[in-house]
Amino acid sequence: MIFSNLLSNLCLHIGFMNLAVKVSLVWLCTMCLCLIVPAISSADTNKTSVVRERVSNQIAIPSLKASYRKAVVKKPVIRADNVIPFPSLKPRHRSSNFKKRVIVIDPGHGGRDPGAIGAKKVREEYVTLKAALELRKQLLKTGKYKVVLTRSKDTYVDLEKRLLIARKARADLFISLHADSLSKRSIRGASVYTLADRAQKRGQNITQTQNWILDVDLAAHSDPVANILVDLAQRSTLSKSDEFADILIPNLKKQTVLLGNTHRQGNIYVLLAPDVPAVLLEMGFISNKKDEALLNSAKHRKKLMKTVTKSINSYFNAQNKLQASR
C-alpha cells in the first residue's frame, strides 16, 4: 500500500520535471521494486509456514485409520420381567436342503382296536398297516427320507403315544392312514382331513403342561400367554398341512374315486401337534364293497401309495424353493 501511494505522488510531480530527472526517477523506482517485492513474497511464505506449523501443533488431524474404528454402542438393558417370549417352531438343525426329511406314517387302529370291518370281514387295522408298509418302502426307495412308523405290526398304540412318536422323531410330515365306514354302504371314495380351526383350543389344552414349543417353557407363563404361543405355532403348522393336502388331493383324483368335498377338517387327536404338519388320509370306505376290494388289493394300495409319495416329493420341493427364496 505504501509503495502504491509513493508511486502515485511521484507520477503527479514528474510532469513538472525535465527529461533527465524523469528518466532517473523511473530507473530508481524500478530498481527498488525489483529488490523489495521478492523480499515481501519470501516473508509471506515464511509467515504462512509458521501459521500452518502452529495449527498442526494445536489441532489433531484425524487419520484415515481412525475413521474405520467401530463406535462402542451400549446395549439397552432389558428387564427380565418385561420380556415377552417369541414363539417359534422347534429348530430343525439342517445345514442344507439335501438332508433327509423325516416322515412319520401312522397306520390307524391295531391290536385290540380293529377299526372298521367291511362286508367281506376285511379289517381296517390290516389295510392301514399294509398301506403304511408299502408307503415306507416307496419313500425309502427315493433315498430322500427317513421314515418312522407309529406301529409296524398288529399292536395297539394309544393316540397320545402316536403324537409323541412324531414329535420325538422331529417329524417334518405326519400322515395317518385310515379307511372310512358308514351305515349307508353306497357311499365310497377317498378324502383328506386336516385339523379344524375349532380344534385348536383342544391342542392348547393338551400342551399346557408340556414344553411343546422347545424354546419356550409354557409352564412358566400365564394361561393367556401360553395359549397365544401355541396358537401362533399352530397356525403356521395348519397352513403347511393345508398346503400338503392341496397337493395330495389332485394327485389322488387321477388314481382313485374321491368323496365329495374331499378336503375336510376335523377335531382329530393325532393331528393336534402344534409343530408337525399333519394329514389324515381316508383311503376309501371299507363299508362299500368296491372300496373294500380295492383296499384289500396289494396292487391298488401300491398305486395309491405311489401317489402319496409323489405328493410328498412335490410338497418338499415347494418347501425347498420357498426356503431358498428367503
Give the SSE map.
Elements: H1 2-14, H2 19-58, E1 101-107, H3 124-142, E2 145-149, H4 159-168, E3 173-180, E4 190-195, H5 200-206, H6 223-253, E5 258-266, E6 278-285, H7 289-295, H8 298-325
Parallel strand pairs: 1-2, 1-3, 3-6, 4-5
Antiparallel strand pairs: 4-6
Helix pairs in contact: 3-8, 5-6, 6-8
How would you describe the overall organization of this protein?
- With about 325 residues, the chain is an alpha/beta fold.
- It folds into two domains: about 40 residues; about 230 residues, Aminopeptidase (3-Layer(aba) Sandwich).
- Strands 2-1-3-6-4-5 form a six-stranded mixed β-sheet, with helices on both faces.
- The longest helix has about 40 residues.
Helix content: 40-55%
> So what's the CATH class of the largest domain?
Alpha Beta
> Helix- and strand-based class?
alpha/beta
Number of helices: 8
